[in-house]
Amino acid sequence: MSTETPTFRHIAVVAHPKLEDAIQESQEIVTRLQAGGCYAHYCLLYDEGLIHRIKSGDFDLLIALGGDGTMLRAGHLCGPYSLPILGINMGRFGFLMEIRQKQWQEVLPRLLEGDFWLERRMMLSAQLFRGSASLGKWDVLNEVVVGRGQVVRPVHLVAEVDGRILTTYVADALIASTPTGSTAYALAAGGPILPPEMRTILLVPVAPHLSIDRAIVLAEGSSVSITIHTDHLAVVCVDGQTPLDVKDGDRIDVRASEHFVQFVRFQDPGYFYRNLTPHMEQNPSTGNYR
C-alpha cells in the first residue's frame, strides 16, 4: 500500500455502452459505494458530460468496467488530469484490468479503507505535422502506428532518434510503443515485453523488407520522429483509434508525455510477472481456454 494513499470519496463509475453486464454491474457498484458514504456517479464511457466533469476535477477516482479498450479510453480521459483508474474486467482479455467480474464485491471494502497502491504508467505525446502545420496531437497509452493503408505495398519510414538519423524502414508499419503497449500490437509484431514501470519508447517494425528487423528500446528520455515517404495511401493510428490518412513527407513526433496513467492495484508489485504466463497461454481470442 502506498505511503501516500489517497482517500476516494467522489467516484465516477463508467461502463462500455455495448456491454449490458457492465452497465448492470456499474449500477450495483454505485449503490454499494453510496451505502458506504461515497458520492458515486454512473455514466457510459463516451458520455460528453463525463469528459467535462473530469476536466472540472469533480472526481477523485474512475472505476471502468469493460475490456482493455475501455481502459485505453479511460487512460486518455484521466491521464492528463491525474485521475486514478480502477479497472474491472468485463471483456475477453483484460491485460490492463485489476479485478475480475463480481470480484469487486470482496475488493470494494479494501478500496474504501485505503488498502491499495497506485501504479504510474508512462504515456506518450504524439504530434503529426504536414510541413510546419500541426494536424493533431494525442496522449497515448499503448502505441502509435505509422504504416501502409489498404494498398498492400510497404512504405518508407525514416526514423530519427533525438534529431539523428537512425534508419529508413521499408515495412508495412513501424510501431512506437510504451512499456504498457509492449504486450499489445508490439508483442504481436515480435517485440519484447517491457516492465510497465519503465519510461522508454520501444520501436518495432512490422514486416520489414531488407531493413532492420529487430525491435529497438530507446534510452529513457529519447524522442523519435518518423517521416513517411510513399506514393500510395498511408495512415497513422493511435491506440487503435480510427486511422488518419497521411501523405508523402508528413512527420509524426513521439516523446514521453508529462502525463501518467495511474492504475489502482490491490495485488503486490510483483503481479506483472506472476500474471504474464497465464495471460500468454490463455489468449481468449483463440478459444483455447484452460
Structural notes for this entry:
- The structure is a single chain.
- By secondary structure, the protein is α+β, with helices and mostly antiparallel strands.
- It has 2 domains: 10-116 and 266-286, 3-Layer(aba) Sandwich (Rossmann fold), CATH 3.40.50.10330; 123-258, Tumour Suppressor Smad4 (Sandwich).
- The chain is 21% helix and 38% strand.
- The protein is built from 6 helices and 17 strands.
- The chain has helices at residues 20-35, 48-55, 68-78, 104-113, 185-188, 271-281, and strands at 10-15, 39-44, 61-66, 85-89, 99-100, 117-130, 133-140, 143-148, 155-161, 164-171, 173-177, 202-206, 216-217, 224-229, 234-238, 244-246, 251-265.
- The strands form 3 sheets. Strands 7-6-17-14-9-10 form a 6-stranded antiparallel sheet, covered by helices on one side. The chain has a 6-stranded antiparallel sheet with strand order 13-12-11-8-15-16, with no helix packed on it. The chain has a 5-stranded parallel sheet with strand order 2-1-3-4-5, sandwiched between helices.
- A hairpin with a 5-residue loop joins β15 (234-238) and β16.
- The longest helix has 16 residues, at 20-35.
- It is elongated.
- The chain starts with 9 loop residues before the first strand and ends in a 9-residue tail after the last helix.
